[in-house]
Specification:
This protein is an alpha+beta fold. It has a domain of 184 residues. Helix content is 33%, strand content 22%. The protein contains ten helices and 13 strands. The strands form four sheets. Strands 8-3-5-4-12 form a five-stranded antiparallel sheet, sandwiched between helices. A three-stranded antiparallel sheet has the order 2-1-13, with no helix packed on it. It has a three-stranded antiparallel sheet with strand order 9-10-11. Helix 1 packs antiparallel against helix 2, helix 3 runs antiparallel to helix 7 and helix 5 packs across helix 6. The longest helix has 22 residues.
Length: 366
């Protein structure tokens, strides 16, 4: 394993030489943040022990949502919020994929195309739910945008985790799948046909010109995922912590980076070797435009429906778990001398080199 910050330190010059012309401002910000995260050059915070007089200077984490170091606690909080909204019954994971012929267009107009993906995926699922004979009501879904394949290639798609149930607000009825159809939601070919039509109409509305060769048949996957908890864990895995874990970066030598991934066809681990510059390009191409939300809730799972969810859980006699059993609270920062919790008293102290040069004569540096 090698830290991502070390890969950036070794390969940043090559990356900038090859890709600086195509870098977006969000890429430059991410590169700068990931390079300094928890390193000696990062800003520091001063921690004081509550049990003894020990004082420590600790490097700051960068807090960037693409950093494999950071945002672990935020990811757990997201999972806990989704777990609190869960309703009983079978859940399904719908995956709406943009075809390869439109990926260049998506890269050039990321904010627009990603918003279109969310809009059309939810509109398709919602339409099928209203027209279904058993459901005939409003759907609810947790949607997450992923832009990468397991090999880290550019592959934008939206996942919808939704229960096989619907709410009819006019008749005040709760309907869900039953009998043999409880393990089935919608036909994936019919979903793909409607999704394609909605995306093309949205692109025309936005005034975007379609490239040649747009396929007639798109890919939408729909499969059962039990009670939905494992699907939420899968969706939250890359929500805040980047697209690769540092344990999967195997080596960075002679300008080449080797990393491990799970092959989607065989289900086994595989290794990919690319140049250091190409590896950084693979990582940074998945940094979203500033302020763009990767996760959204729709229908009766929208945050504005908290009272409705509470009513449903009360009527259905469901006491949702506060979160997955493996979740933990943010661990306290403990003193290395006595083991007592340490308290942060000062933040954003400049790195030692800059700090010492800025220290006035006669002052004392702790």
């Amino acid at each position: 394993m090698i830290p991502l910050s070390e890969v950036i330190r070794r390969c940043e010059a090559d990356y900038l030489r090859q890709y600086s012309a195509t870098m977006l401002p969000s890429h430059r910000q991410a590169l700068a943040a990931l390079k300094l995260c928890r390193t000696a050059m990062a800003p520091r915070m001063r921690a004081v022990c509550s049990g003894c007089d020990e004082t420590r200077l600790v490097p700051h984490s960068c807090g960037h949502r693409s950093c494999p170091h950071c945002q672990h606690f935020e990811s757990q909080q997201w999972l806990e919020r989704q777990a609190r909204r869960q309703v009983p019954g079978s859940h399904f994971l719908l995956t709406f994929t943009l075809p390869a012929q439109l990926r260049a267009l998506a890269w050039q107009h990321q904010r627009t195309l990603y918003a279109v993906l969310f809009e059309c995926a939810w509109a398709t699922a919602s339409l099928f739910c209203r027209n279904d004979r058993q459901l005939q009501g409003q759907a609810g879904a947790v949607a997450v945008l992923h832009t990468h394949s397991r090999r880290l290639d550019y592959h934008p798609h939206v996942h919808l985790a939704m229960p096989g149930a619907a709410l009819d607000p006019e008749k005040r009825l709760w309907r869900r799948r039953s009998g043999k159809r409880s393990a089935y939601l919608f036909n994936h070919r019919a979903l793909a046909k409607v999704f394609r039509a909605k995306v093309l109409a949205a692109l025309a509305r936005e005034g975007l010109k379609l490239p040649p060769g747009v396929p007639a048949h798109w890919v939408v996957d729909c499969k059962g995922v039990g009670d939905g908890s494992k699907a939420l864990v899968y969706l939250g895995r890359y929500l805040y912590r980047g697209v690769i874990q540092e344990k999967d970066i195997l080596s960075c030598e002679a300008g080449q980076v080797r990393f491990r991934y799970r092959d989607s066809q065989t289900g086994k681990s595989a290794v990919r070797t690319v140049s250091g510059a190409r590896f950084l390009a693979l990582i940074l191409q998945h940094v979203l435009p500033k302020g763009f939300r990767r996760s959204r809730n729709f229908g009766f799972l929208h945050p504005n429906s908290k009272r409705l969810i509470a009513l449903l859980q009360n009527v259905l006699k469901v006491a949702p778990e506060p979160g997955p059993t493996w979740m933990k609270h943010r661990p306290p920062f403990r003193c290395a001398c006595c083991g007592a919790p340490m308290r942060i008293v000062q933040r954003r102290i400049p790195a030692p080199e800059r700090w010492r040069s800025a220290t006035p004569t006669g002052s004392v540096t702790l």
